[in-house]
Amino acid sequence: MLSVAAACAAQSTPLKNIRFWAYQIQGQNLNNSIRKLADSRYDLLVIDNVRSVKGDEDHDNAADVAKLKNSLGSQGKRKIVVCYIDIGEAEEYRYYWKPGWKIGNPEWITGDDPDGWEENYPVKYWRQEWKDIVFGNDSAMVDRILEDGYDGIYLDWVEAYEFEPVDSAAVEEGLDAREEMISFIIEIAEYCKKKKPGFLVIPQNATYIVLPNDSLSRAYLGAIDAIAQEDIWFDGEADPNGQEGDVPVDPELTREYIGNLRIFQNAGLPVLTVDYASKPTNVDSAYRAAARHGYIEYVALRQLDRLTDTPPPGLVTVGEKDLSAPIGVHLHRNYPNPFTDATTISFSLLRPMPVRLSLFDARGREVITLFDGLAGAGRQKVRFVPRDIAPGLYFYYLQAGSSGQVGAMMYSP
What we know:
This protein is of the alpha/beta class and 413 residues long. It has two domains: 4-312, Aldolase class I (TIM Barrel, Alpha-Beta Barrel); 317-411, Macroglobulin (MG2) domain (Immunoglobulin-like). It has ten helices and 20 strands. The chain has a five-stranded parallel beta sheet with strand order 1-2-3-6-7. The chain has a four-stranded antiparallel beta sheet with strand order 13-18-15-14, with no helix packed on it. Helix 3 links the parallel strand 2 and strand 3 (80-86). The two termini are 44 Å apart. The relative contact order is 0.11.
C-alpha cells in the first residue's frame, strides 16, 4: 500500500477525472494533425516532441503544445498534454544520436530492439552517459520537454530491464536491472516535479516491475501519476503493410495484465489502456471490457500516426462548422437507424455551450448519459455503442441551453 501522503497525491492528480485520452506519436507535424488534435474532445493527449527528431530541430514545438493546452476536453476543461519519451532505448533518428554510433559503440548500447523496431537500441540506462541524454541539463530530452510546456512525460520501454543483453550487462556490473529501472524512473520523477510541481509521470507497460512487500515498489507507486498498458485484448504490427490490429492477445496474458493493473488501481492510480483493432466487433469488445475494469481505453491501429477512426463511446467529435444548420440548436437524426452494433447521433450548435445528451427507454426511464459537458460550435457527433441494453425502441434527448430536442432510434441486433 502507498503511504498516506502518496495516496493523497495520487487521488488529487489531474488525471483522476479524465474520461478520454488519445495517443499519436507519429506524423503530428503533418496533415493538420495539431489542428485535429486541438479540435478533438479528448481530455489527455500523448504526443511526441517533434523538435527532438533529426531534421525537425527548428520545429516550433512549444507553439503546438500551447495550442493543444488551450483547447478543451470533454468536460470543458483545458486538455492535458503529455510527451512520449523512450527511456530504455536509444533512437537513431533523435537529435542526440552521433555519427558512428552502433551496438557496442558507445559501450552502453547493448543490441537491436527485440521487437524488430528499426533504429531502436536498448541501453544500459543506469549509465550516467545515458542519464545525461535523458535529463539533468539544457540539451537533455526531459529538459527540452519541460521547456516546451508539456504537462508530463509518458515513459516507453520500461521493460528494457527484461531484455537479456541488458539484464546480463547489469549482472556483470553487480547490479539488478529491475531495481536500476525503478530507481531511474524515480530519479526522473523527482527531477521533473522539483522543476515543475504537478508535472505528470506515466510509465507504459512493464506492470510486473512491482513486487509485493517491496519497499522499492512502494516508492515507484508513489513517484508516478498513472500507469499505461498496451494490447490487453488486441495487438497489431507497426508495419503499415502488415496487420496493424485485430490480433487477439492470449487470454492468459490478458488475465496477467489485469491482475498486475489491479495493484496500480489499489494504489489510487488511473489506468490508461490502448488496444489495436479496427473491426467493429473487436473495437466494441475492447471498449466494453476496459469499462468493466475501470480503464480509460483508446482503440487505434499500431502505427499511431493519426487520431483513431474508432473513438471511445460518448466522445463528441468536432467536424467542420455546419453553415446550413438552423440558428441555435439542432438535433439531427441518428445514423444508421435501425442499427445493430453502433450508431452516431449528431447535433449542431451556433456557439459553444453546455450540452447534455441522454438516452431513455420506451417507458421514459433514463438509461445512460451519452455526453455531459461543453460542446463547441458547429456540427458535433457522438458515437453510441449499446452495452447491456435490450433490443427495442429508445429516445435520445438533447438539452442545450434552454433548448430541448428529442429523437428516436431502434436497436435491432
